[in-house]
Amino acid sequence: MGRNLGPRIRRVVLSKEGLAHVERRGSADGSFELPFGRAELGEVLRSLVVWVERGEGRATALGFDAPEDPDAALAERKLRFEPGATLRGIVHAARGRRVRVSGSDGPIEGEVLGFEESPGGQGPRRWLLLRTGAGHIEVVDLASVRKIELADPALQGSLDVLVSRGRASAGGDGRAVRVTLEGHVEDVRVLYVVPAAPFQVSYRLALSGAEARLLAFALVQNPLEEDLEDVELVLTSAQPAAATSDSFGRVDRRGDDDEPENATKLERTRRAHGQPATIRAAAPLGTLVALAGRAQERLDEADTMDTELAAAELAAAIAAEPREWTAEGPVSIPRRGAAMIPVLAKSVRVRKERLFREGAGPNPDLVLCFDNDTGVRLEEGRCAVYDDGRYVGESALGPAARGASARVTFTKDPGVRCSRTSRRDTTFAGLVFEAGGLIEQRRVEERHVVCVRNDHLAAVDVVVELSRKEGRTLTASGLAPLAETSRATRFRVEAPSRGEASIEVTEAWTEATRLAYESVAPSQIEAWRASGRVEASRLDELSGLSRDLEQATSIEAERVRLDRELVDVFARHGKIAEQLAVLRDVGPEGALRARYVSELDAMQQRIGPMEAELRRLKDEADARRRSAERALEALARSS
User: Does 64 have pLDDT greater than 70?
Assistant: First the structure.
């Protein structure tokens, strides 16, 4: 007889964040078991809730297999036996304990001493040794034994452990939660959460002129250890809030203040599922996962314009929008199996656009555009496109809120070729005078000419997208942008039948370079004067400032050179003075002494004028710098 699985699974809510909310309801008579995987048990016990909705019975307890390794648990209690040696192992574990053996010679009761085995012609013979009294040992042929009763309570407990842990070991990673019911109940509700693989949505867009049939399929996996049969399946992209746990039975909490918040979530979820205000059956207190919230969105990075438009639309509409898909009928999926479930089939009106981007090749992309009037929010997913029954391409469909525009780029148009050429011009724009330096401003204009060649028999419109950088403007003479964001601008170009059309877009921005005043050359100042963009009086002040700084630099260089020369004179003077202290006045030394005295007098005559020149050069350099500072203050005030 199979185990009683209790009420059937009626509803499963799969979250894109990797959780499945399971709802079971129905009648039950007596206790039942819920099968789970070992890794799922912790999540189940944190979220499990059971109550009797209708009936006289009541739930009295929830039992579960401990999430331990059953083989390790048996080995720890010395109850793990090799195949074919179970009887020997049980007898070995019962040594010193009292048992009652029933065989062909009647019942025999005694304390187990051990197990004996001897070879024989018809196979080995096995005996059980029992101490039946003081000084009495009974040898029992196990071939005649039909029943062994364990009288010792501790031995009975070991047998229970052997059975329960053996059952868990035989079940592999399977575990069970046992719900104990007293009496018959007409309607019992069981809700819990298990980890699940996130579902994936893909689309099919079947074109027929301006109409298209949009089909959505969800790839879902059954995360349970049992078959799903005729269940209501709901897919949600809302982000659930769940407690986390690092081990069984220990839930991470920030503090006691979290309990009211968890209780509020639990109560809110009960109301959402039509549950009573109180739990009438005994159940462990856990956080029942609330399938409400906001999921983090990931936009299509391949399309800069579509990304920004989608972001703006999502920001305006997503907060109050339903985030669920519901299968159109009951769903059946085998245990741990997977299935493609149709979740949407709607007709939409589509329009085709040709979109040219730099770097995407000469042929523009063919883009299908439609308004999302399906009544649901479209998730991100792959979309296969069929035109009049023919497969024509596949691409990504980005997320689209209800009423927002959706776009699918699925192929190229070989009948249209686009090219772009650019030319850059830079002109002087002005000067900004600051205390720390001079800022030269230049206006840069880059003219982009996009040429569209149409080989079709009919005229076509091509949307030209140009990327836009911060601080730059994009303008086209006599043509307004079709759409514009901070990252891209689009223009529409109409190309005649078997003809060409072009558009010229000017991208303009300002560049600036900081220059030190002393580095400005007179030729540069004259070039600025010739541009006519700076007042002549200010350039005159700049010329005077530049001359003063240049002269101050030159004077300072001369002062540094003279100062080094003076240091050399002092060094030579000191050496000569040391020689004079040791030379005598007569003979060859006297002649050398006289020459040194003459050189020393000449050095002393040079030192005075050199020191005076150093002071003059320093004063003149300081005066030039003060003059430059006054001119700089005047320029800064007039900026």
Answer: yes
